[in-house]
């Protein structure tokens, strides 16, 4: 039996060095045991007995048995690296063994393993990655800094206490560096803490709750603001507790107000209904230009609707565009994918999703087990909107009026295709088909039931992934995108 003790259990590079060495030596997963030094990633909810003085933690610390640097002997899908980066941050003590088992299988006769979403190891790893992703989102949403004065003319330092479910501080800290670059801050957690001095990020040992301040002078002002913007008529307690679990309330300054606001919401909402309406002041507006219509959509086949759309003059977007970009795909498709609007390549080709975003979509569809040829792909808006920039045509988002002008074509496609599943790709499609106030990054990946029992799910647009500047963030976001599409593939497989 080969025993590997990792000094830092959340360092993917360190695990990879050992895993590569084990592969070269031909050591099967059942002959390896993995453990982590307590000083590297101790309990999430308490300090270790070891010396708790702050110390810099290396990004790839030395291990009990140093991992030899060996050349790669096999290749693995890029998807595995993105998956491993999240799985290794999970609190599961068996995560290292799980990752090595997946790696071994990928390099020993199962190169398509990650596509087998029903496989126990794959399903477990994907669930771990989803849990870590959710924890990252909660940390960015519910960290609250408290100001601590240092005197002597020094700028204040801002301290936050947070209790994550998983080992995510290293992965989340860069977000706060970008968000609060001009502040000096520390985020304390039970297993590891992050410190930013305005120039460099430092990771230290964990802390305890009493090492963080409990209040500051600004919190009363914040609570007053929070109470003033609270709308009792829009209160949904179940949804609020889902998005902001009770476990986080103890560290939120506004939390002490929530029970009272919930208790008083119903009588306040009734009082708002009973009160006389406030009439708006009359203001003069310019008369809106009438919709420029040529003909109404005709009854008939999908091809007849497509021909009508070629001559659309419902808004001004047709003038600079090359052509109408109508949907494409089988007329009896059970899954319909609705994007936002055509880009430069689509405008020239006359077909949706053929540019860089479309190529990334094709890659993700293959990874998720979906065949593009079996889907009907279209966009909310059918003409390319852009602004000239030299020889380039830069994409510009269609406004509400332009989206409304195109809605008739989208409705015509829906009525003729009659899909069982609709995939909204991007916020524009989700707002048009699911809810006007749809919050894409918060509500993506959930199922909604539309009219006639049609199931709808929303995900990000592949163009969003292409715009992400950080390679690691892009890889992680791509994996989440594939996961959303895998949910579609699973649902489609269950259709009669």
Automatic annotation (TrEMBL):
Domain of life, per lineage: Bacteria
Keywords tagged on the record: 4Fe-4S, DNA damage, DNA repair, Hydrolase, Iron, Iron-sulfur, Metal-binding
One GO biological process term: DNA repair
Biased composition (Polar residues): 33-44
Biased composition, class Low complexity, residue ranges: 61-71
Keyword Amino-acid biosynthesis appears in the UniProt entry: no
InterPro entries named among the record's database cross-references: DNA_repair_put (IPR023875), DUF4130 (IPR025404), UDG_Type-4/5 (IPR051536), Ura-DNA_glyco_family4 (IPR005273), Uracil-DNA_glycosylase-like (IPR005122), Uracil-DNA_glycosylase-like_sf (IPR036895)
Presence of keyword Nucleotide-binding: no
Pfam families recorded: DUF4130 (PF13566), UDG (PF03167)
Gene Ontology MF term list: 4 iron, 4 sulfur cluster binding; deaminated base DNA N-glycosylase activity; metal ion binding
Disordered: region residues: 33-71
Domain Uracil-DNA glycosylase-like positions: 326-486
Family statement: Belongs to the uracil-DNA glycosylase (UDG) superfamily. Type 4 (UDGa) family.
Name of the protein described by the UniProt record: Type-4 uracil-DNA glycosylase
Organism: Hydrocarboniphaga daqingensis
Source lineage: Bacteria, Pseudomonadati, Pseudomonadota, Gammaproteobacteria, Nevskiales
């Amino acid at each position: 039996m080969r025993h590997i003790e990792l000094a830092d259990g959340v360092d993917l590079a360190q695990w990879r060095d050992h895993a590569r060495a084990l592969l070269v030596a031909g050591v099967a997963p059942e002959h390896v045991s993995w453990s982590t030094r307590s000083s590297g990633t101790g309990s999430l909810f308490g300090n270790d007995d070891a010396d708790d003085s702050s110390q810099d933690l290396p990004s790839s610390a030395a291990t009990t048995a140093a991992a030899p640097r060996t050349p790669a002997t096999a290749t693995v899908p890029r998807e595995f690296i993105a998956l491993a980066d999240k799985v290794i941050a999970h609190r599961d003590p068996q995560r290292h063994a799980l990752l090595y088992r997946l790696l071994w299988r990928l390099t020993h006769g199962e190169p398509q393993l990650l596509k087998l979403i029903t496989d126990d190891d794959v399903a477990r790893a994907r669930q771990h990655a989803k849990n870590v992703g959710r924890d990252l989102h909660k940390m960015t949403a519910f960290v609250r800094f408290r100001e601590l004065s240092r005197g002597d003319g020094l700028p204040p330092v801002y301290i936050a206490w947070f209790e994550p479910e998983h080992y995510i501080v290293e992965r989340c800290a860069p977000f706060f560096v970008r968000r609060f670059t001009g502040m000096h801050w520390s985020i304390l957690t039970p297993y590891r803490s992050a410190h930013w001095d305005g120039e460099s990020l430092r990771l230290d040992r964990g802390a305890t709750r009493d090492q963080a301040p409990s209040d500051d002078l600004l919190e009363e002002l914040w609570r007053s603001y929070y109470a003033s913007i609270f709308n009792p008529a829009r209160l949904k307690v179940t949804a609020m507790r889902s998005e902001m679990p009770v476990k986080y309330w103890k560290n939120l300054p506004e939390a002490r107000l929530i029970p009272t606001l919930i208790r008083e919401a119903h009588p306040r909402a009734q009082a708002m209904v009973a009160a006389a309406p406030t009439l708006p002041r009359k203001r003069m507006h310019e008369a809106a230009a009438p919709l420029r219509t040529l003909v109404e959509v005709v009854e008939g086949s999908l091809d007849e609707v497509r021909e009508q759309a070629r001559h659309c003059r419902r808004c001004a977007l047709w003038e600079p565009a090359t052509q109408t970009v109508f949907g494409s795909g089988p007329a009896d498709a059970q899954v319909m994918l609705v994007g936002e609007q055509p880009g430069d390549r689509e405008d020239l080709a006359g077909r949706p999703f053929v540019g860089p975003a479309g190529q990334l979509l094709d890659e993700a569809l293959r990874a998720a087990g979906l065949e593009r040829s079996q889907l009907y792909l279209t966009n909310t808006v059918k003409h390319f909107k852009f602004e000239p920039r030299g020889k380039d045509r830069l994409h510009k988002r269609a406004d509400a009026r332009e989206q409304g002008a195109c809605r008739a074509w989208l409705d015509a496609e829906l009525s003729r295709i009659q899909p069982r599943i609709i995939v909204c790709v991007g916020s524009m499609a989700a707002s048009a088909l699911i809810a006007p106030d749809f919050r894409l990054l918060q509500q993506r990946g959930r199922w909604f039931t539309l009219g006639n029992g049609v199931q709808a799910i929303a995900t990000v647009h592949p163009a969003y992934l292409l715009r992400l500047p950080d390679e690691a963030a892009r890889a992680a976001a791509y994996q989440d995108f594939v996961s959303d599409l895998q949910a579609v593939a699973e649902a489609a497989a269950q259709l009669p």
